[in-house]
Structure formats: C-alpha cells, structure tokens
UniProtKB/TrEMBL annotation:
InterPro entries: PhnD. It comes from the Bacteria. SUPFAM superfamilies: Periplasmic binding protein-like II. One of its GO terms (biological process) is transmembrane transport. The lineage of its organism: Bacteria, Bacillati, Bacillota, Bacilli, Bacillales. This is Phosphonate ABC transporter substrate-binding protein. One of its GO terms (cellular component) is ATP-binding cassette (ABC) transporter complex. Keywords: Signal. Pfam families: Phosphonate-bd. NCBIfam families: 3A0109s03R (TIGR01098). Belongs to the phosphate/phosphite/phosphonate binding protein family. Gene3D superfamilies: Periplasmic binding protein-like II.
C-alpha cells in the first residue's frame, strides 16, 4: 500500500513538473505584443520604440513586438480585443481602456524626477498676445490646432478650458475662424512655428523635448496658457498578463538607462503608476460624458 502511495506521489510530481515545463515553453514561444500611441511622428520617437523593443525582448521570456499605431483609439481597441498585452497610452486613452477592458497602469515616465506634465497652448513668438485672454479677444479671427482628437494634453484638457470660456463646444461647434486636429504634438508645434495656425495645444514634455532636439526653435514660439499638473503617460497591461511578467516589465523600466529610449519618450527615468493617479482625468471625462460614473 505504501509502495502504491509513493508511486502515485512520484507520478503526480512528474506530471506537475512536466506541466510547468510545458507552460514555460509555451510562454517562451508566445509573442508579447505592445501597442504605442503616435504621440510623436519623428524618427527619434520611432528609434526609441525600436530600442525599447530590444530591452523588453531581452528581459521577458517571450519574443516582444512593439507597434506604433496610426491613431490613439486603435491602441485602446487592441487592448480591448486582446491583440496586444501592453500599451503606451495617454491618460485619456488609458482611462478609456481601463473602463472598457480593465487595463491597469503600471509604469510612467519621469521628467527631472517628477511624474507630471502640463497641457500648453502655444503661439508664434511674433504674435501680439501673451495670454489666452488676449488671444481670445478676437476669437472669430483666430485659427486653433489641437493634436490628436484622443489626446489628453492636446485635446481633452485644452478643449475643456476653451469650452469653459465659451469658445469651443466640439469639432463642429466653435467660435474660432478655423479649428483643426494635427494628429500629433510635433506636428502641432511645427504648424505654430510656421504660422500655419495662430495657436495650438501641445504636451509640455514633448514641447520641451522638441526644443532640446532642435526640431522647434525656442525663439519662434511662446506659451500663453498652462494647465494644472497632469500625471504622466502610463504603460498599461491587460488584466490577462501574469504578475511575474508585470514585475519583469517594471524592473526593466525602473532600471532603464538606454538614452535613446529616455530621450525618445522625453523622459529622465521611470516610476510605478497606479489607476488612482489618473482620477483627475477620469473626473473630466465623466463631466464631459465620455465615460459613465462608477
């Protein structure tokens, strides 16, 4: 009887170990897909994404593939339908993904030790207005550019400010002469610098990074409005990603010293993030009717 028991225990242990080995091999054979919003469109950003793919590929047991999507909502849908396991999102798109699929923020970027940034409204340095109030005095003569329609600092936050001032309702209803959506922060900056639009909304971190890179000339633009502090863009994972993988991802970002990655994402480092960090954006989205209150 004892021999039978020992035999059963041995067989069970062998089966468990075999199962663990098969699971590890299966996990290692899968591809871990990551989606990235097109916050910028320049070569530096794309090079940073490629470098990051290499860093994560080395850290995780699975092969890693990162894709920059053509629009913000595509990344949210990728999470919703299980096409990707992790995403780089703006705060607004993160809240949408969390609301729709349960995606969880785990990491965000630091700028000089701070995990915050701002929405700026900028104009050409030669223009006579130095404040948003002055810019809006003859609003019917002004042109204005948002970034992506799904952007936090390029659309949601400045859009709410302009709505509160009674000059903007939505893409079709506004007091401006012209309202446009550039699609990305760098394009907005270029349009303002070249006087294609009178003013535009832009992410403060990317704005400063574009100046440092020489893409924008600091002497050609000026800031006429700044929002309250916003928590930085989160890297978010699907609820299906296991805890061990999440910890490996966190470790990779927290120890990141690849300058190409840091510069491309306008970061000086990374820190952990949680869903609670995005309550301000969630409150705005609830107020604007984009998501339901819990």
């Amino acid at each position: 009887m004892k021999l039978i028991t020992k035999g059963l225990i041995t067989a069970t242990l062998v089966a468990i170990l075999a199962g663990c080995s098969e699971n590890e091999e299966e996990q290692a054979g899968e591809t871990f897909h990551v989606g990235v919003i097109p916050a910028l469109s320049g070569d530096e950003f794309l090079e940073a994404v490629e470098e990051l793919e290499g860093e994560l590929d080395e850290a995780l047991p699975q092969d890693v593939e990162i894709e920059v999507y053509p629009n913000y909502n595509g990344v949210v849908e990728g999470l919703n339908y299980g096409h990707i396991q992790m995403a780089y999102l703006g705060p607004r798109t993160y809240v949408s993904a969390n609301d729709e699929s349960g995606a969880e923020a785990i990491i965000t970027q630091l700028i000089d030790g701070e995990a915050s940034y701002y929405s700026y409204i900028i104009t050409h340095a030669d223009n006579p207005w130095d404040t948003l109030d002055e810019f809006l005095e003859n609003v019917e003569e002004r042109s204005f550019a948002f970034g992506s329609v799904s952007s936090t600092s390029g659309s949601l936050v400045p859009g709410k400010e302009l709505s509160d001032r009674g000059v903007y309702t939505n893409e079709e209803e506004y007091e401006f002469d012209v309202v446009s959506f550039s699609g990305s922060h760098d394009i907005t900056g270029e349009q303002v610098e070249s006087n294609q639009v009178d003013a535009g909304a832009i992410d403060s971190a990317f704005y400063n990074s574009l100046i440092e890179q020489g893409t924008l000339d600091e002497s050609e633009t000026k800031v006429i409005w700044q929002s309250e502090a916003l928590f930085q863009y989160p890297w978010s994972v699907s609820p299906d990603v296991d805890d061990e993988t999440v910890e490996l991802i966190k470790e990779t970002f927290l120890n990141m010293d690849n300058e190409v990655v840091l510069e491309g994402f306008a970061a000086t480092g990374f820190t952990e993030a949680t869903d609670e960090d995005y309550q301000l954006i969630r409150d705005i989205m609830i107020e604007e009717g984009e998501i339901d209150a819990e």
